[in-house]
Design goal:
Length: about 400
Amino acid sequence: MGQRNTLTIPYSCIQAPYWMSLCVFMGFTAVYLHYLGYDNSETGLVLALGTLLGSVSGPFLASLIDKSAGGRITAFSLMPAVLLTEAAALVMLLLFPQKGFVTSAVYPLFIAVATSVNTLDLRMYTDAVYSGRDIDFGIARGCGSIGYVLMSFILGELCESSSPVMIPAAGLIICAVQFAAFLNYSYRFKRGEGSEKAWQTGKGADEKGSYSVWAFLRRNRNFSMLLAGTILIFYSHNVLCSFFINVVENVGGSVGDMGILNGLMALFETPVVLFYSRITKHRKTSSVLIFSFVMFSIKAAAVAAAASVIQLGAALILQAPSFGLYTGAIVLYTDETIAYEDSAKAQSLAFTMTMIATVIASIAAGRQFDVISTGTVMWISCGVCIAGTIIACLGVLKERHLRS
């Protein structure tokens, strides 16, 4: 590819602030809400509502794009409104930093809108690849992990030295960075060769995606099985991520330790994500995906068995072969198995499954943390993860058999 067709750097600048934002609205939500006086059950309900709204809004935006012939509605046209809504929600949280109706209503809105950004980010990637542009997704996603690492370290230090009230302020700054990155990417995409192909020629102009999400799921049953397994796998993953402060405190750690461990977890995955294309160069994407599912279960067992901060940190090294491999593999696997006209819907659904898992984990685990021991909660989530691994792997293997 010529230099003019390379969008890896601009797209990396899109990925980094998104994952910094995710660190804010997922990684430190429990810290913020606990500080305001919310217990685990209440925190779980706020997280559940936000992720439930996000799991609906993401596919809704994807369906609008997929069903819009001729490019009347695109990720580029929707992004400014989505980021503006996210910024408005953060301003409200800054103005009313206390437990009450505003926080309980606006924080879920913030989570929902912030997660929807990922749907548009992935569509911009798919449009670029379809129009002949070159993006190394592994490098871009690796930059996202680096952004998450930095944000986790910074927020952990801010919460220790100042107050968790700084969390929405950090989110607002990141939102501004996201908008600047979007403007840069949009400019570079539109001035490149073939930039209009994705929606003005071929499938992008004349064909629409499936009529509905349900129709898509019925037509792609093996992919649907993978998605179902992903919900269970990410139930376990999100019990850890959403209530990480509980897990860290259970092994004798503090909020500062959580910030460090949260950052290290992302740091461990970064080399795998960054060099994904080189690491998996001679391997089938489906095989890589199956391996990552198995490693999720092993990581869940290691975290549940950890009895100290050091042991927990060691268990989190398994973030690299589990979540690290998954992030690159799922995007490429979806592109390989799903037709372009349904690509936005498929990519959004893959991400939405993690959001649905968060909804379930937030409600179930939030209550569990209030009534049973943290160790028991983590072993339960490990069992759920193993079941999800089996289901997801069956979906991938059945699809592979179908195509062989």
